[in-house]
Amino acid sequence: MPDHHARRVRRDQAVHAAVVQGLLDPEETPVAAFVDLAGIADSARELLAAWPDRVDVLHAFAAKANPLVPVLALLRGHGLGCEVSSPGELAQARAAGFPAERLVLDSPAKSRRELVDALSGGIALNIDNFEELERVERLVAAGLPARRVGVRINPQVGIGSIEAMSTAGPTTKFGIALADPGNRERLLRVYAARPWLRWVHVHVGSQGIPLELNAEGVAEAVAFAREVNAVRPGQVEGIDVGGGLPVDFTRDEDTPTFADHVAALREAAPELFSGAFKVVTEYGRSVMAKNGFIASRVEYTKYTGGRAIALTHAGAQVAARTVFAPDAWPLRVLAYDRHGLPSTAELEVQDVAGPCCFAGDLTARERKLPKLETEDVVVVPDTGAYYFSSPFQYNSLPMPPVFGFEVSGGSGSGTGSGSGSGSEADSVTFRVLRAAESLDEVVARSGTL
Ligand SMILES: *Cc1c(COP(=O)(O)O)cnc(C)c1O
């Protein structure tokens, strides 16, 4: 079982230590992001333990969830691979030291150059559509090796609670739609004529997809692979089951767990566990979301029309999804005092606003929280995936620094949440994973005269 309590205690210790050690200086660094390095190790361990040893499985972390090179390098060190979807992500994964055999390239719009790079480098590749298939075929005919090439199917099993995150709807843009008239037969002929097509890929969606729907999509991929293999035994050697294990943003617990996902897959697609197929997974959010948080000082507070508003430095530039689609992507906001200790102020209904110049730049609306005061610290937890690691450049706000932290001396066994002394603050060590962007760098990315 994952230790949520220990992770929460580490978070409290890190917030306090960050304040004591000057990492959240109101003048110099009013906003910063933090990554729980022990939490990453725990998550990787749970993921590896959830899959039975019998199955030859590569867990290819979806780089888009957190493409920071030191984070990718840590995950590599913990035994994971990496799934990339663009030349930039591939460059980041290479910089993090992933060897070709632990990389997987997916993308619905791979250029010819990306395909040549992947094939010649021996990187696994999943084809999205029939036109891409022809393009890859020409490259293979021209002599490029096809070491691990698959096709992404769209099992068309339906959408989840967030349409934009659902990739197996009847008209979704990804993959070859298996249930469209004629497609299944056409794809079976395609595999039969191309023995180098040895994988089947499916990814049912990210967040908002029930486990059963995810598993139903994977079962479709397995069924298709078995159909190919019925005619040409052993041709399909592996199933890439994608990612999409949802994260509960309302509390610290990890639910569902990797083991819950494996149980759902076992139920829907037992052949996946027979040892007959290799497996690739592409978990992203579930590996990193709970291992990162954003912290910001409160710069000002005010009342407008009776509404208490706290103005902070954490808004759309670090939490774009939540700000633009607050109903789909609610986040918790936690209140700490100016010393970085959990706030004990009286509860009040407040808006927590970011620094961007548009009215909707709020991380929380009408939320009952301890009354925030200037220089207090607000923490936005569960933001280790898809938040500060993919910043938005609006208002030319610089990217905040990202610090990895470790707590020495038995993390989680201390005096409980946050009643930290100075010496406790010394037991937290930070290292820079991404330096704060300077204003010179902001100007440098703003075009040339
Ligand atoms: C985004 C994505 C993932 C990761 O999804 P999570 O919800 O972060 O687990 C995996 N595979 C593909 C193809 C993706 O597009």
From TrEMBL:
Alphabetically ordered keywords of this record: Decarboxylase, Lyase, Pyridoxal phosphate
Pfam short name (any one): Orn_DAP_Arg_deC
Chain ranges of the Orn/DAP/Arg decarboxylase 2 N-terminal domain: 50-289
Co-factor requirement: pyridoxal 5'-phosphate
InterPro entries hit by this protein: Ala_racemase/Decarboxylase_C, De-COase2_C, De-COase2_N, De-COase2_pyr-phos_BS, Orn/DAP/Arg_de-COase, PLP-binding_barrel
Keyword Chaperone assigned: no
Highest taxon listed in the record's lineage: Bacteria
Span of domain Orn/DAP/Arg decarboxylase 2 C-terminal: 291-384
PROSITE patterns in the record: ODR_DC_2_1
UniProt KW Lyase keyword: yes
Family: Belongs to the Orn/Lys/Arg decarboxylase class-II family.
The protein, known as: Diaminopimelate decarboxylase
Organism: Catenulispora subtropica
